[in-house]
Amino acid sequence: MLTLNINKQEHHFDDLDPRTTILDLCRQHLQITGPKKGCDHGQCGACTILINGERVNSCLTLAIMHDGDEITTIEGIGMPESLSELQQAFIDHDAFQCGYCTPGQICSATALIDEIQQNWPSYVSTDLQNPDGLLVQEIAERMSGNICRCSAYPNIIKAIHQVLSNQASDKSVAAKNGTSITGIWSPPPSETQLSKSSTSQSIDKQTNASLQGERS
Q1: φ and ψ at 137, to 5 degrees?
Q2: What is the rounded distance in angstroms from the CA atom of residue 188 to the CA atom of residue 121?
Q3: Other beta carbons within 10 Å of 67
Q4: C-alpha of 90 from chain center
Q5: Burial readout 77-104 (b: 16 or more C-beta within 10 A, e: otherwise)
Q6: Shortest CA distance to 7 belongs to which of 44, 25, 18?
Q7: pTM of the model
Q8: What is the pLDDT of residue 128?
């Protein structure tokens, strides 16, 4: 028996055709219609879902490969009466037109935000240890697997940027309150760093005083 955990609900299948993809299973067997069938070749991203927190093209993924995995579609991220922060940001910035690609865009962006929090670099990251996820080119690169044929890309980037900025602000407040910080935002300086900074400032003051004495 195949057991799939989709949007925190278990579904059991006894005789599922082993060729069935997650996308077709959701749409045809469970009437979960959030993931969209676009190209059906893994190129457009309209079918993007999350499996164990990572984004996956569901049109290329067989259901039998994910027995027991945690599968999340757009319905599991938020419904009209309980939108996620990212979904609300898409509305605020009008980050869609026809809306066909939007479920995949939001699923992909949800994973993107988690990836940035874990300091995952992208192809365009100049700092592989602490990539700056707020850069437009970073967001655009990380979302490049999701095509919007209406070309709402600028507003999609604005929506994602808004959520990342809010998280950055929250973490800055937490840092001031002495809370441990993780993710893309730098933690408060250590005592060693502060000591080095104080020593450096002291040397600069002595140098400036010496130069002023020579000039007088």
Answers
A1: -65, -30
A2: 22
A3: 12
A4: 14
A5: bbeeeeebebbebbeebebbeeebbbbb
A6: 25
A7: 0.77
A8: 93
